[in-house]
Amino acid sequence: MLVDDAIYCFEEGFMKLYIYILCIALTLISCGNDSCKYAIIGGEIINKNTDYVVLFDANTVIDTIKLDGNSRFSYKIEDFTPGFYTFRHGGEIQMVLLEPGDSLMFRLNTFDFDESLVYTGKGAKKNNYLINDFLQSEKEEKQVFKLCQLNPDDFESQIDSIRVRKTKNLKKYQEKHNTSILFNKIAQANIDYDYYTSKEVYPFVHYGRKKKKIIDAIPNGFYDYRNAINYNDDFLKDYFNYKSFLKRSFNNIALEKHLEHAARDDYFWTDCCYNLDKMAAIDSLVHNTDIKNELLYHYGMVFLSKNKKVEENDKVIKYLLSKSTNQKNNDLIVNYNNSVTKLKPGENFPDVHVRNIKNDVINMNSIINKPSVVYFWSHLYRDYFETSHKRVKELIVKYPEVEFISVNIDDCSKERWLSTIKSKKQVLYHEYIFESPEESVQKLAVYPLNKVILVDKESKIVNGHTNMFANGFEEELLGLLNH
Asked: Cβ(242)–Cβ(229) under 8 Å?
């Protein structure tokens, strides 16, 4: 798999943990019958970051719920629409499927929630099924990437087998439990969209950059399912598997279109024309404004974060703004581009304040007094904390002349950050946390999280957007030392 493709999949993978992060159950509250017009959700927050949780229906806030003296809460949702609900506590985001009469309780430790996720109460079985299905899909995704090296017919045969097995397992579960129409719809959508996504990623993961040859070898009928796809599904628009499919699908649809008129038979993620083709495909097929706006924003941010030819940014932004009706997203895109522009090689590193482990607030420019690598992490993506710090430990041995500066981007208590720092084996000397996270993340255009900024000893930016896991990064470090 090509490095660009691997990085993209890695970034996409970041967003998957949002769907199933819930923990061990505490107690049961139940209304006792399916005719209830409400559901109850509650739990206990251990090592709380704030004194409240915020409950969402999609992106709409339902209520802000204060924790009691034991850091617990219980909330009754009345006259609600069955489906997925989200609550946030500090930087943590949790999701749960609720139907009338459900009563779910859980226990969440903000310091460590990477454990087996188990619910209790009415509605627990379906949520546990979805958790297990998600974890299984995570394992299968790695298998599918390997299968992508097969020829199209053999690949299709293999993923067909996976789909058949998962469908049989679902049917057994449905026969054993009195599952609802809503659950059946979501569980089947999981299977279907996992399958469709596997097909959409095939040309990208299949080895080789000469994508036209790969696409030409795909047999007729391989993408026939697209004829039945609803690209405007209002019910699934906030559901991860559906959103992930749409992103992979438009990557692929646009690639097919792009190669019809491109001067060469390969492509790069950052080709301006390719990204305009993506947005044109979205504009053609997507009429649901929420879905369209989110997809345009996603592709706009990905392009701006990867593109090295800053002069092309205006073309993509101009097209995006002509199609998107979400003013907040549009403002974020424009502001992000302004920040990217200020991070061009030769520009001064922006004035950003951080707090060190001694609780001192300092300007980052006072830290940078030799060639430096600035990288970022968040409690939301704990695996990346481990892998990035492990990578830096290896690089320090090879490049002792370079300073590696780690910055936490979360808007959380400094105590929580310090607790994480003290508990991790991979922690290094230069560990900091943003004093003003929202402002600093915008100034440094921290998107995606795995971006890295290279700065020389004079606090001049050498590369405002690179990746320590990319091929050629060590060559960049050598260039930094010779700058």
From this structure: no
